[in-house]
Amino acid sequence: MATVTYRQALRDTLRAEMLRDENVFLLGEEIGLFEGSYKITEGLLKEFGPRRVRDTPIAEEGFVGAAIGAAMLGLRPVVEIMTINFSLLALDQIVNHAAKIYGMFGGQASVPMVIRTPGGGGQQLGATHSQNVELFYSFIPGLKVVAPSTPAEASAMLKAAIRDDDPVLFLENLALYNTKGELSVPVEDVEPAEIGRAGVTRPGADITIIGYSRMARVAAEVAETLAAEGVSAEVVDLRSLRPLDRATIVESVRKTGCAVVAEDDWLTYGIGAEIAATIQEGAFDWLDAPVRRVAMAEVPLPYAKSLESAALPSAESLLTAARATLRATGRVLETAS
Amino acid sequence: MTETVRSAPRATRSRTRGAKTPRPETAAATPPVPPADADTLVGYYRQMLLIRRFEERAARAYTEAKIGGYCHLNLGEEATVVGLMAALRPSDYLFTNYREHGYALAKGIGADRVMAELYGRSTGVSKGWGGSMHLFDAETRLLGGYGIVGGQVPLAAGAALAVSYKGGDEVVMCHMGDGTTAIGAFHESLNIAGLWDLPVVFVVINNGLGMGTTVENSAAEPELYRRGAAYRMESARVDGTDVVAVRDAARLAVERARSESKPYLLETTSPRLKGHSVVDPARYRSKEEKEALKAADPLARMALELEEAGILSHDDRDRLDAEVTAEVDAAAAFADESPAPDVSTLFDYTYATPVPGELRRLPADPVFGS
């Protein structure tokens, strides 16, 4: 049992996968000499050399496309895009090429590529550097999108993503890099996760809180607070946005009868909209209250701390929404205030 | 005849010679027969003729509604296609754009499987999933026709990166239209290929028109091959209606990529004999322009050259024509008789690694149960 940060888990897993498979290599801006903008690739250039840890020019479309082409010939590139905001420059390659090549050519070539990229606000980086646009990719058949929330899951999911034969967008979050968690086994022995499976990370009976990435951590925190108030909240960590584990979501809501979705993106057409639709499709008769969504205020995220904090979803806003949802059920809870 | 820009040594001017599209000087200075043996030349002519007849047949099938979607033809580009493919080994990789039927044929794929793809049949090269714009054949290493302008260029650089990573001796060729040289992906890819010494040959097929926009109206530097200089990449322009000239220029580029692991930018010039696609009547071209195209037809030119050289008589030519026409007819019949892909295969190619939770529903199906 070792306590590691999310950052360390990613770094050690990349290293373990590179040691395991010669076809795994890394490319991206500033990942070599600079050791990564967020130091995920620290020490890897030194250990593996420039053939396997390749610094790229600032050309997202070019180097993501190059990774796709290399993957078509059987390599397993792991691309780092400095933040998800910059992935928009590679949108054509991700959406029109990575996602289409397997299907469009009748299954003759797959694209075993991983794109690692952090999203997230709260760092006072302003409007263009604080977005959560994972929805764009979650919308596209042919892509897989995963968003683990703890170091252990990050390790297991990264292994799964690298070994998967399809293009996987691996969503990280700036606010998670320094968070800590336990790894129960040495990183090389971590079992790959199953892409497409959500986790019930805390069982409960009264309300389901659904989140992913940073908001799954916030959901766990809120469940703890609710427990102190006598409310038993179940937390579903989506882990995978595409494919989406609808069965786990619906099973939980059928048990608890109400749900709050916590998402770091904007509400309108966001990930939470799909979750809410899924719940009404699969658990309509079990619902005691409307599904509520906690999401970012619909503005380009401002720089000033006062405005930024007000716009971002937090433990406090999730708690408020959860309490309101419980009230809306009309249930009398034993110790609810 | 080619014009070449050597990669400029540091801090010196590029030594570009001339500016105009070179025209063959064969009439006065050199014998009419290009330097290749008679059988080889007849072989090239036959391939060019096959492409011509195939494309004419595709145009007809399109008007008969046997082919759907978009359909872009290689008419006028036959010498370029055949010359380029003659420079490759079977193990070399090819990335193309959406005007690629001829490339598929010249890379060695049977006309029947190409036509079947155009017809959207399960026997097509891409099993009916791609259509005219998206031909792919792993065996002959045609790694795709791509429909988004410029989309294939980074992919080709990446394939070359994989070759270099594995220490292989294959070369990647990537063809594109003149319009592609304006798009960002082209420049990013040339920069990456130059920076990383990748064994890739970029070929710009300059037919003078991006749909209806002339090169002069879309390129600040209309001598497109000169763009290589920005990446210290050797580059050349060649007359794309001369199959042997194209082959020789491409060989130079390919062998340099193979032996030195250096990228190359080759520009070919050829006419687009018809519209942008089958449905385009090309009204933006003047009557005079259309008349002039006839004189630029590479197939007619080669027929004449071979006849004058005593290599291929009029009768021989008719016999070849009958042969390839029969081949194309057989391909069309094969396509016509082939089954459409079964609807039960609709979800077969979304993911290579199956995953739980993948939604496999038809439009009216509910998400849960029935």
TrEMBL record, chain A:
<dbReference type="GO" id="GO:0016491">
    <property type="term" value="F:oxidoreductase activity"/>
</dbReference>
<dbReference type="Pfam" id="PF02780">
    <property type="entry name" value="Transketolase_C"/>
</dbReference>
<dbReference type="Pfam" id="PF02779">
    <property type="entry name" value="Transket_pyr"/>
</dbReference>
<protein>
    <submittedName>
        <fullName>Alpha-ketoacid dehydrogenase subunit beta</fullName>
    </submittedName>
</protein>
<dbReference type="GO" id="GO:0000287">
    <property type="term" value="F:magnesium ion binding"/>
</dbReference>
<feature type="domain" description="Transketolase-like pyrimidine-binding">
    <location>
        <begin position="4"/>
        <end position="179"/>
    </location>
</feature>
<dbReference type="InterPro" id="IPR029061">
    <property type="entry name" value="THDP-binding"/>
</dbReference>
<dbReference type="InterPro" id="IPR005475">
    <property type="entry name" value="Transketolase-like_Pyr-bd"/>
</dbReference>
<keyword id="KW-0560">Oxidoreductase</keyword>
<dbReference type="InterPro" id="IPR033248">
    <property type="entry name" value="Transketolase_C"/>
</dbReference>
<dbReference type="InterPro" id="IPR009014">
    <property type="entry name" value="Transketo_C/PFOR_II"/>
</dbReference>
<keyword id="KW-0786">Thiamine pyrophosphate</keyword>
TrEMBL record, chain B:
<dbReference type="GO" id="GO:0004739">
    <property type="term" value="F:pyruvate dehydrogenase (acetyl-transferring) activity"/>
</dbReference>
<dbReference type="GO" id="GO:0000287">
    <property type="term" value="F:magnesium ion binding"/>
</dbReference>
<keyword id="KW-0670">Pyruvate</keyword>
<dbReference type="Pfam" id="PF00676">
    <property type="entry name" value="E1_dh"/>
</dbReference>
<dbReference type="InterPro" id="IPR029061">
    <property type="entry name" value="THDP-binding"/>
</dbReference>
<protein>
    <recommendedName>
        <fullName>Pyruvate dehydrogenase E1 component subunit alpha</fullName>
        <ecNumber>1.2.4.1</ecNumber>
    </recommendedName>
</protein>
<keyword id="KW-0786">Thiamine pyrophosphate</keyword>
<comment type="function">
    <text>The pyruvate dehydrogenase complex catalyzes the overall conversion of pyruvate to acetyl-CoA and CO(2).</text>
</comment>
<feature type="domain" description="Dehydrogenase E1 component">
    <location>
        <begin position="47"/>
        <end position="343"/>
    </location>
</feature>
<feature type="compositionally biased region" description="Low complexity">
    <location>
        <begin position="21"/>
        <end position="35"/>
    </location>
</feature>
<comment type="subunit">
    <text>Heterodimer of an alpha and a beta chain.</text>
</comment>
<keyword id="KW-0560">Oxidoreductase</keyword>
<dbReference type="GO" id="GO:0006086">
    <property type="term" value="P:pyruvate decarboxylation to acetyl-CoA"/>
</dbReference>
<dbReference type="InterPro" id="IPR001017">
    <property type="entry name" value="DH_E1"/>
</dbReference>
<dbReference type="InterPro" id="IPR017597">
    <property type="entry name" value="Pyrv_DH_E1_asu_subgrp-y"/>
</dbReference>
<dbReference type="InterPro" id="IPR050642">
    <property type="entry name" value="PDH_E1_Alpha_Subunit"/>
</dbReference>
<feature type="compositionally biased region" description="Low complexity">
    <location>
        <begin position="1"/>
        <end position="11"/>
    </location>
</feature>
<feature type="region of interest" description="Disordered">
    <location>
        <begin position="1"/>
        <end position="35"/>
    </location>
</feature>
